[in-house]
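Sanity check

After download, print the first record. It should look like this:
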Amino acid sequence: MQTDLFDADHELFAESVRGFVTKHVVPNLEKWDAERLIDRETWRAAGAQGILGLAVPLEYGGPGENDYRFRVAIQTEIARVGASALQSGFSTNDDIVLNYLLRHADDEQKHRWVPGFVTGDTIGAIAMTEPGAGSDLRSITTTARRDGDHWIINGAKTFITSGILADLVIVFAKTGSEGRSRDFSLFVVEDGTPGFSRGRKLDKVGLHAQDTAELSFEDVRVPAANLLGEEGAGFSYLMQSLPLERLGIGIAAQVSAEAVFDWTLAYVKERTAFGQPVGQFQGLGFTLAELRTAVEVSRAYIDRCVRGYNRGTLTAVDAAKAKLWATELQGRVIDAGVQFHGGYGYMMEYPVAKAFIDARIQRIYGGTNEIMKEIIHRDLMRG
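Expected structure tokens:
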């Protein structure tokens, strides 16, 4: 796919990631789907390969690499083999949980929690969504009440990525009673804390290998030292981090669309019907031409957003556009891919079928695409 995003260093890094994917990912895809879980050995192997926690500074055991293009290279190589669940898990750890810790944890907290994100020994989760509160985070009911040197957390969360394996969970909770922006805070709840429990491993339509769970907090006492950042700043912190989360989703959708297009193009060149490759039929060919053009144009915008993030100029609106456009395009490309594979496109042994069920969530999590449209709409009205 046409892109000028990468330099020689990124290409070399991508080769290293490709080696990891070939050795540790491809042989395990079916096992992970069956077990509804990606084993910890894979996380540790990724850490040993140097593809986790890239942004962690040297003093906390990381490489201190803030060029997000390396993260794009990781996403791209994982997408080539259709390992969307692993892509989701790694993105949750690096783009979301670790991002919050690097932004808002104090030095003592960073020394406690951050090194494991580099080695693969620590898997994190973020608990925002509740059974009655999705995109409308102000309506959450999970509470945190100060009690001396501790906070007591009560509530329930759902649809939590990495919820089964997580060693620590960043919990979004109400610390005030009026529902204002200053009435929410973030807390780190560690595995084994009394009152913290995991419910069922949720049975999803796709992303079967990505463990997703319900979490429960019943009088969970966490030390005051586990407050992340300032009390009352939780909502503000979410707003600061959402652009990267949405950019990450947009990138995942983009590289998935590229991979599926390549699989489909290779298939229609080989598959014959009525004496010729099916790719020679004009109706199918015109659709391929349109999709190829759309994917390349989309890549140009995604690349621009990545460069903007590296410069510190990526806006929430631009990230919303990236997430909205790339995930919608991903759906179009994959649907065409299934159609052009014919009956085989509906067979789970073909990666295009797996991509079909894995991709649908992209238009929902990280804020639904309807929310993305509302963000863009409001910005237009302000202009």
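If your output differs, re-run the checksum step. Summary of this record's structure: The two ends are 34 Å apart (CA to CA).
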